[in-house]
Amino acid sequence: MVKHFEISADQLLQKTARGTPILHNRVALALANLQGAPHGGRKLIAPTRRGFYRITEQGKALLNRNPSSLSRGDI
After folding, report:
1. Cα 29 from Cα 26, distance rounded (Å)
2. What is the pLDDT of residues 1-55, one digit of tens each?
3. Contact 45/35 with Cβ under 8 angstroms?
4. Which residues, in sequence order, are bridge partners of residue 55?
5. Number of other CB atoms surrounding residue 44 within 10 Å
6. Which residues, 6+ apart, have CB-to-CB distance to 14 below 8 Å?
């Protein structure tokens, strides 16, 4: 992911006020939202085992609409 999105070493070192790496925080938030949390949204992915996810039927239906982008409102 770091390579794909060309995340710099400086960006990797950035931390939240609580000391959590910002990248870790943002990835965790994205995964939570795609799993329907925290607002009971649609479950677009489901965990299969630690660190692995599968796309759900709802997720496939969303992707079949070929969105140009996704926002929290789509989820």
Report:
1. 5
2. 899 999 999 999 999 999 999 999 999 999 998 999 877 788 999 999 998 999 9
3. yes
4. 45
5. 22
6. 21, 22, 23
Q: Residue 4 is encoded by which pair of tokens?
A: 């794909």
**Each residue's pLDDT tens digit, 53-73:** 999 999 999 999 998 887 777
Cβ pair 54, 44 in contact under 8 A: no
Find out whether 7 and 23 touch, Cβ atoms under 8 Å. Answer: yes
Extract the tokens encoding 61.
């239906």
As a whole number of angstroms, the distance between CA 54 and CA 41 comes to 17
Give Cα 46 to chain centroid, integer Å: 12
34, 75 in Cβ contact below 8 A? Answer: yes
Asked if residues 58 and 42 have their Cβ atoms less than 8 Å apart, the reply is yes
The structure's pTM equals 0.76
